[in-house]
Amino acid sequence: MQFKHPEILYALLLLIIPILVHLFQLQRFIKVPFTNVKILKNIEKQTRKSARLKKWLILITRLLIFACLIFAFAQPYFSDFSAQNEFNTTVYLDNSFSMQAKGDKGELLKSVAQQIIENNTNPNSAISFITNDQSLGNLNLKGLKSELITLKYYPHKLDLNTVLLKAKNLEDNKKNSLNKIILISDFQDINLKNNVDFSTLNSTVSLVKLTPKKILNSYIDSVYIEESSSNETTIKVVVKNSNLSTTSIPISLFDNEKLIGKTTAKFNNTFNSSVQFTIPKTESFNGKISLIDNALEFDNNFYFSISKPEKINILSIGKTSPFLAKIYTTNEFNFNTTPPQNLNYNTIQNQHLIILNELETISTELRNSLNEFSEMGGNLVIIPSSTINLDSYNSLLRSSNFGKIIKKVETEHKITAINYEHPLINDVFEKRVDNFQYPSTKLHYQTTLNRNSSIINLDNNNAFISSIKTQNGNFYLVSSPLSIEVSNFIQSPLVVPIFYNFAKNSLKTSKLYYTISPENELDLKVNLQKDNVLKIVNEAKTNEFIPLQTISKNKVSLKLQNAILQSGFYHILNNENPIKTIAFNYNKEESNLTSIHLKNLIDNHKNVTISPSITAIFDEINNQQKINWVFKWFLAFSILFLLIEMLILKYFNK
Hints:
By secondary structure, the chain is of the alpha+beta class. It has twelve helices and 37 strands.
């Protein structure tokens, strides 16, 4: 038996007072003369015995009355845990789209939310509640029920380490607090991006894994333009299954809401299939591809938008190089080249990418114009000549705090190392190449750059091509001339993707579609009037917002920053006039229903257990917090002893 207020038990010491009163209370007997005292002597002895017994009985009943009252006010109870402890339960419920999968009682998310409502019956319990999009602390029974009823699916799934960090922030660090974390999810592979460390938690952790009845899910993985002519465009659609299948799935193509065509994706015991659609050549096409699949709903539709391409303005200042003209073709780029003496400085701010191609010296006027160009978000590529004016180059580099060129190294070196993780080329290679025929250079310039990232390195670990991220753009430095007399780099396969991406990164033109992510960026070639801003609105006009935007002379850069959470078409408005339509789709990572083996996840973590069901975990919590109070029994006994005392006083013979 435990006591909520054990300090009150010290009052039991006060019970010595009635004992002392009873022990030292002296009864005075008055002698009354009586003629025949022989008989009275016997009566007097009997009376004194009865009185003494009655006093002891009254003393015992009164002691029991006060003792029971003291015990009642100390609030005794029976429980596995002390009532002094506070229970802090944190529940993470995965509300990502993979929880649309069907279980024995319908959609996993909806069924588990109902089970939590039914099993969380303790009206005095407070629960902290975490989902992929919110963290709520100390919810009572009514508040938690309200959150569960209104819970919606969210397109971004949290990594388990992020979930544990959020739970740790909600922990109660008081000495008398008992913390428990419950993780409820289907625990897909994408939940585990890094090793999970449970040892940093001051809590016990219970894992509840939800498993769908079927792990076969069909979804549209990607769409791309396979071929385009003057009359028509061929669209290729990649359809995937989460498991091997021999099914055939009907696929439909819509232009907005108009049905354009139907076909069937056939699987021959494979994971992948592809289909094609041919559409007429138009300046704009808002396409939606649909399939019928009952496993998950969110990935049954795929949106894409074809619009008139925006050409990127590129200006090469200096030497004329045929390889640049071959890369920057007229269907995608407005490419011009000019010697420095013929340069029209007014055209610099209209460019997206400027290449200084083997200039011997950089004039002060050109340096000032390039600094302004970089500050406005322009991208700059420098290819030095064999005989540069070192001071003029370093003046440009120092003015933007890029660093400096130290010296020229006239020793032949091979270009041997590719930084496959660099954003400029991370999508160029399907796999890392070990037997690549690396190019070489006869001379290069040794540099010390600030905040730089190497794209390609020489065999002496010096950078051959470096990049520096500026506030709104990028700066690239090639450490060697690219003339054929000095280097054979332009004859290697690397030159095309690198220089192509130099241009593509200078203007983030709208893609065929975007994947919904915490932050998306795109650039628009539009001139805004003073105080004008661009707005984005969805097709149904239920979501309208003003994105973060950086306005420069030749473009407007938009940062969406988690503003788009629903797939579909979105219109970019300038003064309420639509200037472009873009398409957004949910991330398809969750479409693959493979999951983590929890036993491998909790290996060597003593504070982590696997719970078989929601009912079992909440039964455990309710039993831990269950308290059987017994103070009412002590109150009842005190009343009982009071009645006994009254009966003794009334009916006990003296």
